[in-house]
Amino acid sequence: MTSPRHDRVTKAVIPAAGLGTRFLPASKAIPKEMLPVVDKPAIQYVVEEASRAGIDDVLMITGRNKAALEDHFDRHWELEAALERKGDEHKLHRVRKSADLGNVHFVRQGEPLGLGHAVLMARAHVGDAPFAVLLGDDLIDERDHLLERMIQAREQHGGSVVALLEVPADQIHLYGCAAVEPIEGETDVVRVTSMVEKPDAADAPSNLAVIGRYVLDPSIFDVLAETKPGRGGEIQLTDALLERAASTEPGGGVVGVKFTGKRYDTGDRLDYLKAVVRLGVRHRDIGDDFRSWLIEWAESEEGRGEDGEQRHLRH
């Protein structure tokens, strides 16, 4: 492990170039990152998380048909003027918030060559400084300070940092998986010795899944530039991190922060619906009413599936 680094993390990279095929046809014309989770698009939760961690410079890696992302984080003067005329300060504040979270920049990936390639696209913007990478499918509860803890771990241990979550054995094949060893004096930070992308349960080195938060040393760019396509024919960030984990050169070494807080997965349709419900019952305006209705509905014949009617929707 290299010596600790105290460079501030001031920039975040959010890959958002995916086609969102799991959400078709909804994502045919609307970027999946703009699908609402209660009353905000999923991507706004991610940018708000970066802002809470003191990061005010965000680069989104996008692709075709993602113009709605740029519009959302821009000012909407006509709408703001209409709300001002109405005197609706509450909605005016909410509309302006997305544009006030920091400086949000955009660059196109061009070709869908994988997460590692998307991160490499940020090289000119990031420069020679550590940076965060936040994936939009994982929403971290605002009461948990995972990203802040990861930045702190980077300052203490140097190198790069990944977020780790214990998952059941039958789910580990959905994630990158880390082999780890303890670090003396640490309880929630471990040293990563190896990483495997989406292993079979029998081959997984642990039950620690790598979830969508990273704090990366800028030396990762040189490695990514030389990384060959791996699983799925894509340039895998996991492969580059595996090389960094074994390196004793400046910027080398990888540690993991074990996360035990609340994570909302919006990666597929069922988990997306669960995220909407979980965040909906916590909403300051409608949460109490929604929770009461949900409990009442769950106890009804319809909620128990006992009303005897066929309500299956056509796919």
TrEMBL record:
It comes from Metallococcus carri. It comes from the Bacteria. Signal peptide: none annotated. Its EC number is 2.7.7.9. This is UTP--glucose-1-phosphate uridylyltransferase. The gene is galU. GO terms for molecular function: UTP:glucose-1-phosphate uridylyltransferase activity. GO terms for biological process: UDP-alpha-D-glucose metabolic process. Residues 11-275 form the Nucleotidyl transferase domain. PANTHER family: UTP--GLUCOSE-1-PHOSPHATE URIDYLYLTRANSFERASE (PTHR43197:SF1).
